[in-house]
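Q: I'm writing up a methods section and want to include an example of the input and output format. Could you take the sequence below and give the corresponding predicted structure tokens, formatted cleanly so I can copy it straight into the document?
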Amino acid sequence: IKGLRDKKFFAFTLAEVLITLGIIGVVAAMTMPVLTASSRKSEYSARLKKYYSSMQQAVLLYNQDHNMLPEDWPIPDDGYDSLKSFWDTRFAPYFSNVISIEKDNEDDPLIRLADGTSLKIRKGAVVDIIYDVNGDKAPNQDGKDRYWFLLNKGTFSAYGWTEDIGTVHVPDEDEEPYTKDMNDRDNVLRLCKKSGSFCSQLLLLDGWEFKNDYPNKI
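A: Here is the clean output for your methods example:
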């Protein structure tokens, strides 16, 4: 048809298409890890907020239901049976999402929750409660996916055990000494870098958000 023969048609060559797809692939490869890390941080932040609120509420409700003051809480004995009984009595009635309780490899109670998270209870000077935001999934490292909390009698808090500062937690030679001020963010940030157990306190100060200077890769 004469009218069609007079028109010019424009199209991409195969080489141009392949180059464009290659550029898109490179950009995607560069941006996907950033997007994935951002999504993971948001997920971890939401889970930590929920967990912290749930534990605080459980302590409050137990005190109300039993007319008890925080300082009247006993500290349980070491051992699986004692710690499991402590959980069953003080916390289990206020958690509806527990799917199992079992011994971990250190004979401490490991509580698995329906959202894929878990927590373990162990006896130190007080009660340590270690919350894992992704359960058994790697890396299972303090400050990365595992966060420490303390139950000192009837007071639940982020990990801020200061008794070991200056002995167990010693700064490097070129660092200033750590202080016992758990509200000093710079101090807690340095402690988090030294020991992942303090990272829950850093996140608490930051509203459970992972700031740009958070020292561990998430």
